[in-house]
Amino acid sequence: MTTGVVRRVGGVEVLAAVLVVALGLRVLGVDPLVTPQLRVGATVFVAVVVQALPFLVLGVLLSGVLTAYVSPLALRRVLPRRLGAAVPVAVAAGVALPGCECASVPVARRLIARGVPDAVALAFLLAAPAVNPVVLVATAVAFPDAPEMVGARFLGSFLTASVVGWIWARAGRAAWLADRVRRVSTTGDGPRWRVAAATARHDLVDAGGFLVLGGLAAAVLTTVVPEAWVAGLGEQVVLAVLVMALLAVVMSLCSEGDAFVAASLSALPLLPRLVFLVVGPAVDLKLIALQAGTFGRGFAARFAPLTFVVAVLCGVGAGVLLL
Amino acid sequence: MTREVRNALLVFVGAVLVLIVADGTVLHYVRPGMAPLVAAAGVVVIALALLDVARDLRRRPEPADGHDDDHDHGSGRSAWPLLVPVLVVLLAAPPSLGSDAVDLAGSRTVAVGRAPEEPLPPREAPAVPVVDLVARAAATPDGGALAGRDVTVTGFVVPARDGRGTDLARLVISCCAADASPVRVHVDDPAGLVGAPGTGGDRWVSARVRLVPGTATRGTGFVPTVTVLDAAEVREPTPAYEY
User: Fold this and answer.
1) What percent of chain A has pLDDT over 90?
2) How many CB pairs under 8 A join A and B?
3) Beta-carbon separation of B111 and A267 below 8 A
4) Which residue ranges make up each domain of chain A?
5) Between chains, do A50 and B20 touch, taking CB under 8 Å as contact?
6) What confidence tens digit (pLDDT) does each residue in B113-130 have?
7) Which of A168, A211, B226, B234 is the most exposed place for a label (fewest CB within 10 A)?
8) What are the residue boundaries of the structural domains of chain B, listed by start?
């Protein structure tokens, strides 16, 4: 047991000691934020976590309810039999459910545990944060002079979710997902609300720790990545598309707010900014961390690159068509 | 990770969420509209942990943990990273973003174009958000509703982007502080009323100004110039961001 040592010392004691030391330093007036990067990074880190946690909590509550109250049979009945047709249905369901990307990860996990095919649940996972009405309205507000961005974003994200779903339906292996995703061990234990609570708590711990790691990575990289990356990219569209796609991964913005950041990069043409908006909700550091915690590292290592490539291509395709 | 530690950690995380809403520091990180959701999430997290604790207490007589819930117990996942935001908030209480973030944002500025339609309040020198002033100034070459009017703007003092003179800046957030974008006005201030940027912390200034028409152009990066008529140092407003 790797946790044996910790257990002998006692996790509770460690926790208490750490908190006492922290409070002691606070009382002594020690300010650890000594450089501008640390000050900005700490605020950005706490902001990402505080912004994401309510949506993650909402997601785990939904996943708990799904596990406790919705039978696998009912789910199978609403989905088309054929995988190819079920994928766009799941994407359309994502349109109707306004959720942050953090909320859709635990929900997708429990969909899989309830027998929904992997590819269909993953298409839902990609669609829910990207193409819902809240996000589209935010995009319209952020780009008042370019209303075509709304349609292009919708198309790019819809295509991304569908194409990744179809690819996973053909090439995905069940073994790439961690075993725990499919394990259904709480059913039949006590009243349903207690099953829901146990599922929610379990999913919260699985995803929460990784959310924190993703937030840390995003805060560090956001403060370290030089702004010069973006400055002077106006003329080189191909390079700008790639840089903006990477920036979307690094910054880990929530999909309701990323349109305003894209709008603020006014030195760039619309196409790279559209790619930023299509890639961001599909794959970013915070999401990769959440997915690694929820579905396993082997899954994240395959799903993140696949999604990134597909999202860039779909974003460019939608942009060429509509912008 | 034992259940006891996990539950204790969850209680701490929930408590921190509730606390930052109670003492208002949540506005350093997210929009005011998010605050009730953050508090509610904190309460739910605490409740989820306490439900488990209550169950443990009731079950004490039984040896070890019973037949069920081994998946809840044996999960190799660790909640220890959740301690990091708790510690950062307790130990450092990260402040609102200010001039440090403006420096890091480089040339990025809030996109212009959503100029408010309504006229300025009829009061003498009404307070106008910097982001509104910039949008109005950029929307019409002669300044529109701002033409010939005195307005009051509040922001922190930063060096101008070309290094000549100073600007008043604010940060605009649309979701959380991670997406903060700077917005600024350049001050024409021969009398030096606004003063220099703060050292070791931002200097906040509330200034009575008048727009110099035609200065918010693509050439200036949509940073309008305003003539300073009067200025006074003020405390950091709450919230420090504009939306």
Assistant:
1) 34
2) 237
3) no
4) 1-30, 36-322
5) yes
6) 567 778 888 888 999 999
7) B234
8) 3-92, 99-234
- Cβ–Cβ of B100/A25 closer than 8 Å? no
Q: pLDDT digits over A115-172, tens only? A: 899 999 999 999 988 888 888 888 888 887 889 999 999 999 999 999 999 999 999 8
CA distances from B53 to B27, B63, B85, B222 (A): 32, 16, 23, 57
Q: Which residues of A touch B179 (CB under 8 A)?
A: 251, 253, 257-258, 260-261
Average pLDDT per consecutive 10 residues, chain A (323 residues; last block may be shorter): 54 83 83 84 92 89 86 83 88 76 86 90 91 85 87 95 94 88 64 88 86 86 73 80 92 83 82 95 92 91 96 96 92
Q: Which residues of B touch A228 (CB under 8 A)?
A: 106
Q: In angstroms, what is the C-alpha Rg of chain B?
A: 24
Entry pTM: 0.84
- ipTM of predicted complex: 0.90
Nearest Cα neighbor of B157 from B193, B210, B119 is B193
Q: What topology is assigned to B99-234 in CATH?
A: OB fold (Dihydrolipoamide Acetyltransferase, E2P) (2.40.50)
- Contact yes or no for A32 and B91 at CB 8 A: yes
Measured on CA atoms in the order B85, B87, B93, B99, is the torsion positive or negative? Answer: negative
Q: Give me the torsion for CA of A65, A67, A68, A70, rounded to 10°.
A: 80
